[in-house]
Amino acid sequence: MNVLNFIDGVFVDAIDEQTISNINPATGQIIGTLARSKGLDVESAVEAALNAQQDWSALSMLERADWLDRIADGLEARKEELAQRESRDTGKPLALARRVDAQRSIDNFRFFADFARKREPEVFEMTDATNVVHRNPIGTVGLITPWNLPLYLLSWKVAPALLMGNTIVAKPSELTPLTANLLCEVTSEIGLPSGVLNIVHGYGPEVGQAILEHPDIRAISFTGGTETGRHVAATAAPMFKKLSLELGGKNATIILDDADIDMAVEGAVRAGFTNGGQVCLCGSRILVHTSIADEFTSRLVEAVEAMVCGAPENESTQIGALISQDHMHKVESYIQLGIEEGGTILTGGTREMTGQVGPTSEGAFLRPTVIDGLDHNSRTSTEEIFGPVVTIHRFEYDEEAIEIANSTEYGLAGSVWSGDTNRAHEIAQRIETGIIWVNTWLHRDLRTPFGGVKNSGVGREGGAWSLGFFSEPLNVCIKHD
Ligand code: TXE
Known about the structure:
- This protein has helices at residues 39-58, 61-77, 79-90, 94-118, 150-163, 178-190, 204-213, 226-236, 261-273, 290-305, 325-340, 379-382, 398-405, 421-429, 463-469, and strands spanning 2-3, 5-7, 10-12, 19-24, 29-35, 122-125, 129-137, 140-144, 167-171, 197-199, 217-223, 242-246, 252-255, 285-289, 344-347, 369-372, 389-395, 414-417, 437-438, 457-458, 471-479.
- The chain is α/β, with parallel strands linked by helices and 481 residues long.
- Helix 2 packs across helix 6 (178-190).
- Ligand TXE binds at residues 144-148, 171, 173-174, 204-205, 208-209, 212, 223-225, 228, 231-232, 246-248, 280, 384, 386.
């Protein structure tokens, strides 16, 4: 499949007709190309978006909510294809792509449509005046998204941005263009007005950079690595663009002495290895109370070794390929570092996939890996690996667990496992993070704020926070007679 840009409602080549090969990381095969766009392509997308702005923002929010539902219907009708494309682009298990990526992409549109319909007016009464807060569109907004949950994360931004009356210039990751293209196909089929949604494909420093620098793009919502986020902020902040940055994480899974061990093992495996550990919310550091550490660790290793790893299309596969050979080498270099820093590999660390059909030496497969014995301040335990690797650390007191959990530069998510939810809640409140679960992981209510502290980002998205980010509030204060 040759993926083109989608500008002003039309699929077009990059202006200079350059392309990038698109590789399926599970096979190493080239499965198509995508447009390698540059500044001029972004320029033409921005022009289309600006032209569409007035008519789009003239619709009522409820009319735009209806458009979101139509997009959701269109995606739903092609849900299986969506999952297949996501799995081919990322190497993730098809079953996971169906359950998580495809479902959540549809849900994001439905959620924001419903949220708009239930929204209460923002009115603040004074004794002698009434304040009415209007949420005006920002204008044309830039969305830049990563490869780990391609349409899930793109739609999480597209839906509220459209709802609030903005037009969009978006750049998906160059590693995963297929489902952004499906979204364009759907919007084209349902007749979303031309220019409202524009997608420009290509490399970050070429297309992404042009979006960041464009003076007519007034807000940037970015999800990706912390280093890139730093660059995004440095470029956009002097232009006073609104910025939302959702960056990396090195999240702690804290298992207290009174935790239900079965539940904690199941939760730690899910938190550590969902999507091959390539989710910013993944719990890559497991902190376990010394009194249960040995039992927990041996049960964890047993559960990890029972995971089905291999061909994404196999229905029972739980861990597929990593996003690329390059990324696999990066993850392997961290496993090597873990050994050099004194860690012991309890399981994994190798590429072989036992007993599975499908993976070839060209595929980016790595076995889920558990490392024990590392100092919690080691590089392996504090830097984001973004792969199927967890480290185990022991603690004696709750205070110690809190201190270890807070001892990285990140602060995105985490979980606490305990038989005493009050105790877990107390601890949860003291973790420097944006979101933390008690006795569960990745249990999301889309109305709640999502985002991180410290080097995990700036701002929150979700429910009212997304509507706030993608709008400019205008307060009208009316003096009573
Ligand atoms: O992300 P990048 P990469 C972490 C993870 C991973 C590391 C690097 O640790 O190993 O980041 O991954 C676009 N101007 N996460 O290199 O580069 C890029 O094209 C504008 C965590 O893949 O941050 C892509 O569309 N845009 C993360 C997007 O930024 C630029 C998910 C993200 O890519 C740009 C992914 C530039 N100069 C990786 N350079 C999460 N938080 O979920 C790149 N881009």
